[in-house]
Amino acid sequence: MSLLDPLSEYKLIVPIAALLLAYLLHHVVFSSKRNPTLPTPKGSLPIVGCTFQALHILKDQTLSEFLNKQQDDLGPLWNLNTFGVYTPIISDPATAKRVMTETSTFVRDDTFEIAATGVLRYGLFLIPSGDLWKKHRKLLQPAFSPSHLRLGAKVSVENTDNLLSTWRKHLSVGNTESNDRHIVINLHQHLSGLALDIIGQVALGGRPFGSVGNLPIKNARGESSGEIPQSFIAFEQIMKTIGSRFGLPLWAWKLLKLENDQAQDGIQYAHNLAARVVKERREALNADGRQRKDQKDLDVLDRVIMSGDAGDADGSMSDAEIRDEILGFMLAGHETTSNALTSIMVHLMQNPRVYAKLQSEIKAALPDNQIPTYDTNLPYANYVVKEGLRLSPAVRLLMRTSTKPVTVLDHHFQAGTNFTVNVYHMQKSKAIWGQDAEQFVPERWEDSEKVKEVEASGAYLPFGAGPMMCIGQKLAVLEMKMVLIRCLQSFDFELVPGQDLRFTVDDITCGFKRGVYVNVKERLVQ
Question: Is 29 within a domain?
Fold first, then answer.
């Protein structure tokens, strides 16, 4: 839902404008967090700052382009004033690293948690810094050990093969008399369903969501079949709702129709699904005998359930915490991975040289379509994934709030200042990555010493940094590699011409959410 949809109704313009102006005046007069020494975008107005520009940017979904242009024009630190909120935007690697890792000075506040009101509260990825976050992180971290990564590789291959079987079935239907045996899919949808199935089996008690069996597919004759899974629709509604109201004052939610009413069906479905997952797993654990499972083999779902059943023991979770944590993993655990994987596939299809080089490496390392494992070593595949995450990070902005007065790049800020790290700009900066910074060049990752230097500098943050770095980053990267390998072993992919392939930035994460339509053909030469 666009922020501007409600504004098209004339009867709302006057009250919204009046309330907005009053809110902005209050912040300008009473806020101690603004910094008048910071440069601001051209066209910023007294009091309202960039508010009206921001409304158009959100409507047109051009936030990343706007922020990057200001970063180019204004330098590594500038001020964005929207809706009366003063936000310093950072693209200096050393400063970004400091903001993300200096936890005594910079913390995650409750902005994310507030935006998710009525949806979930206790997901690890939105809990503010503090004891509650530490409790959740400590409990869940062992569920991403090497043994779980090995399972993740195996499950990723198995579920990818399920998706490939679906494609093969449709290739054989309606194409028997055609010389052009292909199907057309929305790659974004298919990889989203696949990622949900994988996270269900790795982290949620081996849950078989079965998302990939009946996805929408069009054969060479133009005949369509399948349907969008209800989970896909529900999760998309939820992510849009949270993202659309992120950082907005609570009073604006009703005026802009950003309350839960717009996504109530999706929220209810997700809550019911999470509760069902917990209930079924709890029953299975009770029936099988909890002592039979080695502690090191407990996944996310096992750990939160057994914690909750521990009663008042230290570190136990309430029923609400359990439900929200599982819902959070279903949302974040598949959304970011599928967005990143879709982006990598798009980059491959747009760069035939890289595509062919990766296929050659796969064929040489795994002849006769051998199954990849956790131990499979494909250096170029690693480079492809890292380069895709550099050019198209699923999370482009990272936020932290200062707990005390602080000096950043020679500018002084009060406690409570909200800083934003522009990950996307840093990862495409020519000053850091060279003149080919905006090109898809996996070979840039071959120089291990240079790579270590760049990563240590803070210029590469696709999973964040510091103690709040993504808990599932290793699993996500492994999953991407396994999926890429199995797909490219058996199929060729080609973008359908003429489609809009701009990145969508309309909620928490970024991706090709308008869809990526792809011609899929079985490989003739194995």
Answer: no
Count Cβ atoms below 10 Å from residue 525 Cβ, excluding itself. 6
3-state secondary structure 197-213: HHHHHHHCCCCCCCCCC
Query: Per residue in 142-189, pLDDT tens?
Result: 999 999 999 999 999 999 999 999 999 988 775 555 567 899 999 999
Highest mean pLDDT among 2-11, 194-203, 207-216: 194-203
Question: Is 9 within a domain?
Answer: no
Torsion sign across C-alpha atoms 111, 113, 114, 116: positive
Residue 522's contacts (CB-CB under 8 Å, 6 or more residues apart) are: 168, 171, 181, 490, 491, 492
Residue 82: predicted pLDDT: 76
pLDDT digits (tens, 9 = 90+) for 43-68: 877 767 777 777 677 666 677 788 88
The SS3 call for residue 500 is: coil
Dump pLDDT digits (tens) for 95-114: 999 999 999 999 999 998 99
**Closest listed residue to residue 455, CA positions, set 447, 14, 475, 297:** 447
> How many other CB atoms are found less than 10 A from the CB of residue 327?
25
Q: What integer pLDDT is reported at residue 491 of this predicted model?
A: 96
Element (H, E) at 217: strand 217-219
Could you tell me if residue 299 is inside a domain?
yes
Give CA–CA dist 11/146, Å, rounded. Answer: 58
The DSSP symbol for 127 reads P
The structure's pTM equals 0.89
Write the CATH number for 188.
1.10.630.10
What pLDDT shows up at residue 25?
Answer: 46
Write out the residue range of the structural domain in which residue 118 sits.
95-401+449-457+464-522
Residue 344 — φ and ψ, nearest 5°? -65, -40
Alpha-carbon dihedral angle through residues 463, 464, 466, 471, given to the nearest 10 degrees:
-30
- pLDDT single digits (tens) 286-299: 876 555 567 778 89
Length of the chain: 526
Q: Does the residue 26 lie in any domain?
A: no
Chain centroid to Cα 144, Å, comes to 18
Question: Following DSSP, what letter does each residue of 437-489 receive, concatenated?
Answer: TTS--GGGG--HHHHHHHHHHT---TT--GGGS-TTHHHHHHHHHHHHHHHHH
Residue 282: strand, helix, or coil: helix
Decide: 415 and 403 in contact? Cβ < 8 Å.
yes
Count: domains in the chain: 1
b or e along 139-172 (b: 16 or more beta carbons within 10 Å of the residue's beta carbon)?
bbebbbeeebbebbbbbbbebbebbbebbeebbe
